[in-house]
Design goal:
Structural class: alpha+beta
Strand content: 5-15%
Strand order of the largest sheet: 2-1-3-4-5
Radius of gyration: 36 Å
Largest sheet: 5 strands, parallel
Shape: elongated
């Protein structure tokens, strides 16, 4: 990181995402700039405003975790709470000269200060997470990372010191236990620092404590003063002592044998009631059952051939082990056993005691019998995880919550109201300002929203001015599909495709795109074999959900749902809807590539880089209370607008986009998918987080 700073290399982490920057004409391959995929690999946090309140909080956490030296740069705004004041504020026209406008001088200067998230002015009542000290708040709550309760910073320091002092004290008492009487001191042969005034077992290794020799007591023998001879004697005494205890436990008579329970691994452990072994935790079994198992084991050994050589005996043991594994595998067979408690099989003994298992080891069936089961009948290890809202493989601002069983997705949902700017609740009264306002829902569709408003007003005034609707819509479609291709290829892991797609995004937005370069990319991508293999079995839309979906993802299923078919401007250009029969992520890639090529043909080569002239929005043409509606085929599906006007002033506005419907598909297309496939499936949908929360 320091070498990057010294070499003036800017590793930029974009907020809310690279897709938003590309929509503004950002060049991701400009000199001296690299795009970082994680905050820990970045030295510049580049924030594009306006940023919703919740995303601003997430951005503040990201900045707090970035390594120093680091710089904070805002585009289009000088203040975004709760982020600190930026080092640099750039205009949208300066995003492609970052290396010229950004310097690390401030990060190296003596005035540079460390940034701590949400620190209060007086330093009091700061709450932090014991596991994640970078998480701080001015009020009690739970840690957003691990869920632990936040504690006062002063209390946490005192608690840590207290725990440290208590731990040192306990360790000191454990390592240097004082014995009041010098007579009959018992110690561990392996750990001479363990001393006691009565017999017992070593708390470290479990060996039986032995009496300390008188001469050692007098000499004050310490841990390092014993030699190998004494250690050997101690170990011999311990083995003899253990054998005596074992014989005594075997010959010990109990008044009521039927109520005596013992441990299969530690026969010296006995109890008059059921329970668990205090040494190994195994379930205690009746002593009579244990004896019967020992007799069965002895009879099995007697039945073996007495003259069997060592090699054959070893081979026989291996075969027995294999038979045991095959028997355990048979237990798992059969779909009818899924989800059932397999610790009790018909015709078999209760495995809870494991009395018939050689060695007394607990089986995985027994250990996981109370855990929920996945579709394959195996126990689930459930974890809740979040991806986003700044994940490099997802649209900027999209936050996905997943419940995982290992690396398999059991359930995935899109978190709502994360990227919401409440644009439909706080809107300008002037109609002329509405296109710029609504384009914040999707920066890639500025012209589409402008045309949508114009058509809604035209429907009120019953006017039909000549507007090149095809060029307006198809240019937005090309830019949106290229942007989607850049993000999608990044999620799939195709670096070369991501490089070329992101470069074409910049060229197209800046009016420098070449038709030949775009067609070269689409043709080569269509013929990529590994992509087809990678995407062929993921992103499949269930048939019962297709009726509610619009856009490219429904046209890959053979359905001709496209609003452009009914528009006279498209009919005049002999427009035909592109339809495939490939309901998967590969089909979604194919249909978008084909639509890019079709859009270029529809608008003509001369209009590819030509600036669009949008129709004028007039405030004064309408009087009284009026209501207008319009709908268009946006790049990801149907886009609808409804507005109410009173004497030329906007009274209400409502937008219905395809992104809301697409977000509802996420639980279905990700269920039982491997994690990486689930992320690719989500990226294939082309969800706009701001439109979704509108």
């Amino acid at each position: 990181m320091l070498s990057d700073v010294a070499g003036k290399l800017l590793r930029v982490f974009p907020i809310p995402g690279l897709d938003v920057l590309l929509a503004k004409g950002f060049n991701p391959h400009q000199k001296g700039v690299n795009i970082a995929t994680t905050p820990k690999h970045a030295n510049v946090l580049l924030v594009t405003s306006p940023l919703p309140e919740k995303l601003s909080t997430y951005a503040a956490n990201v900045y707090a975790q970035m390594p120093r030296p680091r710089l904070l740069v805002f585009i289009g705004s000088s203040s975004i709470e709760p982020l600190p004041p930026p080092h640099f504020v750039l205009s949208a026209d300066e995003i492609n000269i970052l290396s010229q406008r950004i310097s690390f001088f401030h990060a190296w200067s003596e005035e540079a200060v460390a940034y701590e998230l949400l620190a209060t002015d007086d330093g009091k009542n700061i709450y932090t997470c014991p596991m994640h000290p970078e998480v701080q708040s001015d009020q009690p709550g739970n840690c957003p990372k691990c869920g632990m309760a936040l504690v006062k910073k002063d209390d946490e320091m005192q608690s840590m010191n207290k725990r440290g002092n208590e731990g040192e004290k306990q360790q000191h008492e454990h390592m240097h236990a004082e014995v009041k009487e010098e007579k009959d001191i018992f110690t561990c042969p392996m750990h001479p620092e363990i001393q006691s005034d009565k017999p017992g077992n070593c708390p470290i290794c479990g060996m039986t404590l032995v009496k300390k020799h008188n001469e050692e007591q007098q000499a004050g023998m310490t841990k390092n003063e014993g030699d190998g001879h004494h250690l050997h004697e101690y170990m011999q005494e311990d083995m003899i002592h253990r054998e005596d205890e074992s014989k005594q436990s075997q010959n010990k008579e109990v008044s009521d044998d039927e109520n005596v329970y013992t441990c299969p691994m530690h026969p010296e452990v006995q109890s008059n009631e059921p329970g668990e072994c205090p040494k190994c935790g195994m379930r205690l079994v009746k002593k009579e059952e244990e004896k019967e198992n020992d007799l069965k084991s002895d009879e099995g050994k007697k039945n073996q051939h007495p003259k069997q050589d060592t090699q054959n005996h070893h081979q026989h043991s291996i075969e027995n082990d294999l038979d045991t594994h095959e028997m355990k595998a048979d237990v798992h067979k059969g779909d009818d056993m899924k989800g059932h408690d397999m610790s009790k099989m018909e015709g078999q003994e209760d495995m809870a005691g494991m009395s018939d298992m050689e060695g007394g080891f607990m089986s995985m069936v027994q250990m996981t019998k109370d855990m929920p089961r996945s579709e394959d009948g195996l126990a689930m290890e459930m974890n809740d995880v979040f991806f986003g809202p700044f994940h490099p493989g997802l649209p900027g601002g999209l936050l996905v919550k997943m419940k995982l069983d290992g690396d398999t997705v059991m359930k995935a949902t899109i978190e709502k109201e994360i990227a919401s700017q409440h644009l439909l609740h706080h809107f300008p009264k002037s109609l002329s300002q509405l296109p710029q306002h609504l384009s914040q829902l999707n920066p890639l569709l500025h012209s589409t929203y402008h045309l949508l408003i114009y058509k809604a007003l035209s429907n009120i005034a019953d006017s039909n001015d000549l507007v090149d609707e095809v060029t307006i819509l198809e240019k937005d479609r090309i830019g949106s599909h290229l942007n989607w291709l850049s993000l999608f290829s990044r999620t799939v892991g195709d670096r070369e495709l991501h490089y070329h797609a992101s470069q074409l995004c910049y060229e197209f937005q800046s009016g420098k795109a070449g038709k030949a370069n775009i067609l070269k990319l689409t043709n080569s991508t269509k013929k990529t074999p590994y992509l087809k293999k990678r995407l062929n079995n993921i992103g499949i839309i269930p048939e019962h959900l297709l009726q509610s979906v619009t856009g490219p993802i429904v046209r890959v299923s053979g359905m001709e749902k496209d609003m452009r078919q009914s528009m006279s401007a498209y009919q005049q250009r002999n427009f035909k809807t592109i339809v495939l029969h490939e309901n998967n992520a590969w089909g979604q890639l194919q249909v978008r590539l084909a639509e890019i090529e079709q859009s270029i043909e529809l608008i003509g080569d001369e209009n590819l880089n030509k600036k669009i002239i949008l129709p004028e929005i007039n405030n004064n043409i309408l009087q009284g209370e009026q209501k207008g509606e319009a709908a268009l085929e946006a790049p990801n599906g149907k886009l609808e607008l409804s507005i109410e006007i009173n004497d030329g002033q906007l009274k209400s506005v409502a937008v219905k986009s395809a992104s809301k419907v697409l977000a509802g598909l996420v639980p279905e297309i990700t269920k039982a998918q491997e994690l990486s496939n689930a992320l690719v499936s989500i990226a294939s949908l082309d969800i706009s987080p701001r439109e979704m929360d509108a």
